[in-house]
Amino acid sequence: MKTLTIGFLILVVITGQLNANADLTQNKKITLNLDGASEVLVKGFIAPIEENLSETSFKEWDTLMNLRAATPEKRYPASVFHTFLPDEPVSIGEPWKVEEKGALTLLRQLHPNPSLDMHINVGDSRGLWACLRAYNDKFADIVFRIHAEFKLEDGWFTPSQFAGHLVIDRIEEKVVFFEMYVPDGPINFDVNWKKDKDASYSVVAGGFCQMELRAGIQDPLENVEFTESIPQEAAEHALTLRFYKSQQINWVPSDQVLEMAQTQQKPIHAISIDGPLMDESC
Predict the structure, then answer these.
(1) For the chain, which residues make up each domain, given as ranges?
(2) Nearest residue to 255 (alpha-carbon basis) of 6, 2, 4, 9
(3) Which one, of 98, 124, 24, 108, lies nearest residue 70 by Cα?
(4) What is the pLDDT of residues 152-204, one digit of tens each?
(5) Which residue in 1, 12, 22, 4 sits closest to 237, CA to CA?
(6) Tens-digit pLDDT profile for residues 93-102
(7) Hey, which bits of the chain come out as E strands?
(8) Could you tell me which residues come within 8 angstroms of residue 198 by beta carbon, excluding any fewer than 6 positions away?
């Protein structure tokens, strides 16, 4: 579903494929572990979304209007968070797959029927990926991205993505901080509702929601100096590349394209779109 105001993306054709990961990975690799015997208290939250829908008729869908975290607080063994750790040593910016079982366990705290299969998938929607953003002798900061949705009664609720951080204490092998949330955006979810059970179609709408799981203290890495690190934006981009081939294109801002085209003596291709290319909200 595309619901955002029509905009323009402009690119200058370049030879070869952009490889954004090339400058991210370093030679040094580290091992990440957790003590599975410890426990982690996770809080879940879903804010009411009735005022944030693009289609007002959805207010008649009681299941959506009453959507709240299934379990506001729950304790987990730290072994659940092994889901987000790599099986072998990794370097900064190096992506790895997140295990599905643990991710589904955590998502059930928000709703009992999560799915990672994505009921609408053109080939680049499904996936769970993480990468190491920063580390020192004490801490490691892991950034992850998960595409998941929830099967509701008579329909589907599909967030744009679940982004998040896992900060671990490398010495004590414990979870210091964890968050998994739907990022802000003008539209960060869509819903498919089979309003008429006898109909062969669903009503579709989008909106803005606040949905998250969180554990530990806020900003535990403030004022921490790292041995190695990359910016948050670079880590997020490395993960985005694991989903969308469109992000392998060297997109150029419109205010720079004319100068670059003249300098490189290359043609300009302008593409009009009416929604984001980098998430599942439309």
Answers:
(1) 23-245
(2) 9
(3) 108
(4) 988 899 998 999 999 999 999 999 999 999 998 878 888 888 877 777 666 67
(5) 22
(6) 999 999 999 9
(7) 7-12, 39-46, 73-77, 95-97, 114-115, 128-135, 139-146, 149-152, 155-159, 162-169, 174-181, 189-193, 203-207, 211-216, 228-229, 251-252, 268-273
(8) none
